[in-house]
Amino acid sequence: MKVEEVMTRTVYSVSSDRSVLRASELMEKHRVGSLLVIDSGAVVGIITSRDVRSSHPNRIVADAMTPNPIGIRAGAFVWDALRVMERHGIERLIVYPYGPASFGIVTRETLASKLSEIIDSMTGLFKAPYIESITQDLLDRGEAFHLLFIDLNDFGSINKQFGHPVGDDLIRGFAAKLKNVFDENDCLCRYAGDEFVVLSRMPVSLVREAIDTLSSGFSVDPASISASVGWLDVSRETQLSGLSFRELIKRASLMSTEAKPAGA
Amino acid sequence: MEERKNYSRKAMLSLKISEFEMPPMQDLLIIGKRAPIGPEAVRRMAEALSPEQYSIVRIEHPRIEAVLVRTSLLQMMDEHVLINIIIQEAEGLINETMVLRSELKVAVSVQREVDIS
To answer: In terms of CA atoms, which chain A residue is nearest residue B66?
Structure first.
């Protein structure tokens, strides 16, 4: 899911030399919580209803706005937008440009409402359709990355032996381990019940270390489990444009099956 | 009706004319955090009235947001020293909704001793 799919396209603006009172009137008239501040066709700031409340109405917008607002590409993924907001502690991002001199706005509230569609509630990892779109985007842009397909070995027997709550604890614990092992810029996904997919741009040596850590075993009292990993270094592929997510998953999942210990 | 005939309205005009001071902001403006005019508006005003003669210095202070200062003063002495003195003197007077205007003159007194032998 990309920012352009969730952003607000009808954006109202004001110039920096207008009064805060005028900005407040515009917000009320259009029933919006913020205005872009545009001078000579360039975005120079953003003024929000909070700025209006904390400023004297006689002030000019330039003295109440947040200058040089942080923006994001319309083609960026929503998760990246949320990460930018969290890093800067802000509630809105300018989206630009999606047309000649056209701007949009995306708010944290909008993103939060969309998150349930892309995030697995048990683990906090991405769901499969979202990571599929990220993979396709990387392939389309010809970017090198590693795709890891991770399968927990003999997970079915854990549920049978210890019960589903223990199985759920293992899934959550393994998701936490994935978050520890990989970089914050990597994309982590719960692909299906006990299967995970990781898209990583870490160097080969770090990916190898991560695989060793994941394969070495993991326990949540009273159960313990190991994982098998299928690893595709997409940078070694000669024809990225011909590849698809389905093809990559097929190959990586078969590799993880081959890596499984006998009987798992 | 009779009363209406005697009714009249008059306006008394009074003019006080004096020369407009240029620039009207003298040497300093100290701008409160919630003043009706903010630092950018003050900067634009100063730039329109006296181009390239004033600078805005933004301040970290609970009540003061910025100081507009004649640039030549900043050339005469260190900005940090000058602003500290201004803040020390202004913070007892200003609240966050006010803009204070001030003159600031620097007189340098020099005394040198030379060998006359």
So the answer is: A63
Q: Which of A19, A51, A55, A56 to substitute to test the interface with B, most B CBs within 10 Å?
A: A56
| Whether B38 and A17 lie within 8 Å, measured CB to CB | no
CA distances from residue A93 to A66, A89, B108 in whole angstroms, order as listed: 12, 11, 52
Report the C-alpha gap between A63 and A50 in whole angstroms.
Answer: 13
Please give the C-alpha separations between residue B53 and each of A176, B65, B105, in angstroms, as whole numbers. 59, 20, 15
pLDDT at B69: 96
Kindly state the tokens that stand for A241: 């444009």
Q: Do A60 and B38 touch (CB under 8 A)?
A: yes
Cross-chain residue pair A56–B41, CB shorter than 8 Å: no
* pLDDT classification of A16: cutoffs 50, 70, 90: very high
CA distance linking residue B55 with residue B42, whole number of Å = 10
CA distance B89 to B79: 16
Interface test with A, best of B31, B37, B40, B42 (most A CBs within 10 A): B40
Can you tell me the mean pLDDT for B38-50?
Answer: 94
